[in-house]
Amino acid sequence: MRQKKGVFTMVSLAVASLLYGAQSDYQLDEVTVSANKIEEKIQDVPQSVSVLSENTLQEREIKTVEGIIQEIPNMSFSPLYFQSVNFRGINQSMFTSNNPVTIYINGVPQSNSYAYQASLANVDHVEVLRGPQGSLYGKDSIGGIINIITKSPQNEWGGTIGAEYGTDHYTYTTMSVGGAVVDDVFFINVNGDYASDDGYITNLYDGEKGIDETRNHNIGVNMTWKPIDRLSVQLSLSDYYNRAGAMDIVGVPSGVNINSYSRSDTKFQDWDVHNKITTKSNSQALNLKYALDTMDFTSTTTHKKVEANGIFDLNTAYNGLSSFSETTHKTSTQEFKLSSANTEGFRWVGGVYYEHEDVDYPKYGGQYDYSGYGMGYLSNNDASTQEADTYAAFGQIIVPFASHFEWTLGGRVQRIEKKIDSDYTSTSIDLMPGVVLDSHHYDATSSWTAFLPKTALLYKINDDLSVYTSISTGYLPGGFNNYAFSGGKETNKFEPQKSTNYEIGIKGDTLDGRLFLGANVFYMDIKDIHVYSYSNYVMTATNADKAHSQGIEFEALYKPIPTIEMNGAVGFIQTEYDSYKIYNASGHLIQAEGSTIERTPAYTAKVGIGYTDPSGFYGRVDVRAQGKTYYDPENTIKADAYVVGDVKAGYRMKSGLDVYAYIQNVTNEDYIINALAQTIQPSYDTLVMFGEGRRVGVGFKYTF
């Protein structure tokens, strides 16, 4: 409690210092967002929204979705070989692998934890809609939306090219080039980035160095056609590739404090099977917008394919056993939307949506040592195929009344139909090679229909400052267990996870437009949480009954003088399971009522200050903090709080060349970003993963 009071005191002092200053004529840029699927000033949107401009992304060295997440209060991630996101106590969905925050870029949705990335090379700004977005965006948006807005096409050709080099032979290159092929009619932009890291981990088994090396690229092409003033057609193509090796992981024995270990303990690892995963994705999006006299018609057609193929050593014994996963996920969507053309007064939006998903798991399982039971080594695999169809209709109106008030009322009706065909086999590896010792087949279909309403009330104190209150609902679809040893539909089916979010907030500009300040409090009810359970040591998918979260969030951007800009984003949260009775892998009943929801930091904070001299020199300091975090429902695995600092300095020339140097994690802080309880490896109980150590780098960016 004393620590929380201290942090609140620091926040209060910081806000007070931001509010102090003389008036002047320099201001922050006006911000418009499309949170309600129509363009509006951020002050007029009755919900919490964070906006990161292109300049912000560049200044703060934000190159990935993880970097965006670190800027958002009460949002965090726990990486392994995929990205698992937590926001306000809502975690990644078990078995569906869907995150509670959906990424949208040019209309293409991405919530699957594999390939949870997007190129930021051609971005105008990023909008992060905090809180459930079910009424307009539907399934998988139970926690929020990361909406990545690409730049509008221009007649004049121009772009950027840049590169960086840093610790462990880290390299990063980026480029974006675009312009008009036919002035005012046809435009094209080509963009992308490439990153590599040679790693630092040595494998003791064979002496190989750099087994944690990574390679990835993002490539995008945007083509825009405007045959007439009223019509705009945009085709967007993207390609993503990532290859990752070993992680910064150490095994911690039972009864040992995980915080007593450090990143240096991960430098030497011992694997007879090299851990690696390759992830690929490509997407296509066709956006058509036609401006009628009083409304706009929009059609968005998308397709995305994600492939992930991984193999992982199960233990430190030299027996060649591994776990494996191979999946292909295809998603096609179609949305038709009508919206009012005006950005003030009475506004409305409505539309219909269809989505089809195909998920194929030809390999999903592991190899295990059952020699103690006289069965030798076995390979257990569940090959499954799944299909899902989503049908939805949505609408929302914004009604001004009584001079300064606006009432928002919206909703979405959706129906989701799913089916699965699953074949589990247990095959002998050594005693009777290739002989199937056990098998299980099940197929099932089910459907879920839901109505997701939203209502909000906004009061405009003046043109720049507003207060609001809102109630919104979120939804994560149900589904089927895709690793089933036994049972049929009812045993292997789990229900949708739902949330209701209550929020009150204030936001807007003050001090003659030099300070943007946002603050909100929220309370969220969470029901039917997706979790694992076990019956006779068989893993199944199920739902924990209910939980809740409540917290407060602050955001500020302040420009006291033309050469200095300050920013801050702080979130405090308290979460609790209200009902949780699940069996763990050892067959013990877990009763976690009253426990904190796992993977939810007690607080998150990101503050920074930047200085830009008229001569071209600039520099900035950023500090990021995260509170204590539990990694299991029983709250027996706890990671301590941490603070990480970054610095950057450079020089911008009038020619468009920017040269800079940076240090990330200046103090080389050891901090835990993931911990997994496990029962397969007999020599330890918990796998612990650390965040990146100090990285020193130099770079340049040329704008033309």
UniProtKB/TrEMBL annotation:
Residues 255-666 form the TonB-dependent receptor-like beta-barrel domain. Gene3D superfamilies: TonB-dependent receptor, beta-barrel domain. GO terms for cellular component: cell outer membrane. It is found in: Cell outer membrane. It is a multi-pass membrane protein. It holds the Pfam family Plug. One of its GO terms (biological process) is iron ion transport. InterPro entries: Beta-barrel_TonB, Beta-barrel_TonB_sf, Plug_dom, TonB-dep_rcpt-like, TonB_rcpt_CS. Coiled coil: none annotated. This is TonB-dependent siderophore receptor.
